[in-house]
Design a protein that fits this description.
This protein has 192 residues and is of the alpha+beta class. It has two domains: 12-42, no CATH class; 44-191, 2-Layer Sandwich (Muramoyl-pentapeptide Carboxypeptidase, domain 2). The chain has five helices and eight strands. The chain binds zinc ion. Zinc ion (ZN) binds at residues 121, 141, 146, 148, 181. Zinc ion binds at residues 121, 141, 146, 148, 181.
């Protein structure tokens, strides 16, 4: 039977993980469930693509974090993929934002879905942001703290639901355009 990405969410939220870590440090270790308990302590791999056509799409599949620290090569490759493509300008992407993507990717992998996350927008220079339709003036894309993504076969609303579950920041769902915005800002949700 094929795994169903629209079934229950089984991934530990990053916020919950941090709470668990804090609780553990305080000597109040909480029970953790199965594989989920050490998800965030495992090497963090991401597979992202950019572009609609499989043949020409840019693809990066790397581990960007392991043994408690960023892996420079993997991190840089992801920052490059998440660049402002209009200006061909890459910046340091916020690692927590990569963790949000990692949560989404880990969830796909858990369901045996071996496919990348399609990135529509990552970092945006203010010049590009000002010329992006419906972009917020103070968009977190300009800080490298937001991504717009799509996953073929998984509905944008489902990704939004996962984003809310991860509880890492803002979640914007754009049904007409078929993508979901995720950022590491304040917890908030909206429909675009
Ligand atoms: Zn966005």
């Amino acid at each position: 039977m094929l795994p169903n990405p629209n079934s229950d969410l089984l991934l530990p939220s990053r916020r919950r993980f941090l709470q668990q870590s804090a609780a553990t440090l305080a000597g109040l270790a909480l029970p953790v469930q199965g594989w989920a308990g050490d998800f965030w302590s495992q090497p963090r791999e991401l597979w992202l693509i950019r572009g609609q056509i499989a043949k020409t799409a840019e693809s990066v599949k790397v581990v960007y974090w392991a043994d408690g620290k960023l892996i420079p090569e993997g991190y840089t490759a992801l920052c490059q993929l998440l660049r402002d493509v209009q200006l061909n300008l890459a910046v340091q992407i916020d690692p927590v934002t990569l963790d949000i993507l990692r949560g989404v990717y880990g969830w796909l992998r858990y369901f045996g879905i071996d496919q990348p996350i399609t990135v529509l927008s990552g970092y945006r220079h203010p010049y590009t942001n000002a010329r992006t339709e419906r972009a917020a003036l103070n968009s977190l894309h300009m800080l490298g703290q937001a991504v717009d993504i799509r996953i073929p076969g998984v509905s944008a609303s489902r990704i939004a639901q996962l984003g809310k579950y991860l509880s890492a920041g803002g979640v914007g769902y754009y049904p007409a355009m078929g993508f979901t915005h995720l950022d590491r800002g304040k917890l908030r949700t909206w429909v675009g």
